[in-house]
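Let us practice reading a record.
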Amino acid sequence: MRALDVLFSLLGLIIGLPALFLLWLIGLFDTGSPLFRQERVGRYQKPFILVKFRTMRNGTASVATHLADASAVTTLGQFMRQSKLDELPQLWNVLKGDMSLVGPRPCLFNQKELIAERAERGVFDARPGITGLAQVQRIDMSTPKLLAETDARMLADMKLMDYFKYIIKTVTGSGRGDRIVPR
């Protein structure tokens, strides 16, 4: 499916260039720094730098979304999270080969329990993805064991139709937005 990843990420970047530029420009006024780069756990547990549009104020703690302070999310950031537009720059990660369009969402290195659960199930043998079964079923990183089991099941059962199904479900709104718990 790597060929599809390259084709679709390249097309997405070319066709989406006006939207990417507009979101970057609006983000510049929103946070002063529209792109967010963060080290994540990649294939074979190797680090890579994930690129997203910034949805939280600068200086916000680098933690899993379910642990993030909801008040740190900007108004534009809330819209981008709900619409998944904050994920668009990850097409660059897909094109580079750090990620796939479909796969387990990459976690942070400080998420030790999730890393252990995924390692036990061989999840790190695959490239992390922008979306996948867990995302369309609204399973997030707050339930590490369930997430790792879901990721492993997706990878074991993945067929070409599933690849397209997860992308279509994500684009049409399934699994809409990351869960940030209000405090």
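A brief commentary: Strands lie at 35-41, 47-53, 100-102, 129-131.
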